[in-house]
Amino acid sequence: MKKIVITILAALFLFAGVFFTYEYITDQKIVDGVVSKSIDGKGKPVDITTEFSPDDTIYFGAKANRFWIKKAEVVWYKGEIATANRLLVEEGIELNKAGYFTTELSVPEGLDEGHYSVTIYVDGKKIRETDTEFDIKK
Fold first, then answer.
1. Helix, strand, or coil (residue 43)
2. What mean pLDDT do residues 23-43 have?
3. Phi-psi sector, 60: left (phi>0), alpha (psi -120 to 50), beta
4. Global pTM exceeds 0.90
């Protein structure tokens, strides 16, 4: 009887360990992507919004959700997320002190009015981790 209980408990612990390891590895590695008008001294997005003027500098920040992710790729789009709408691709974005990947979009002549999107990927991977959308209005 005692051996059966120990065997069942061991099997339950093994199953739970495998389940939670699988969830940890396959879950999103970069989360909470936001656009903002500025970032603080450590690199965390502040003044979060989804509406900008054409002359604003737009900051994108997303939090790392796994300790081993150190670099990311950010893709900016004019309009919906589609390869044909790519505006700018930034590779090798490094994790900052606040645990965020941050980058900025600034065009000297200003951005056109309209709808924009931004996505982030683990550097070298094809799976989109998170994305956000924003608008440029005069």
1. coil
2. 83
3. beta
4. no
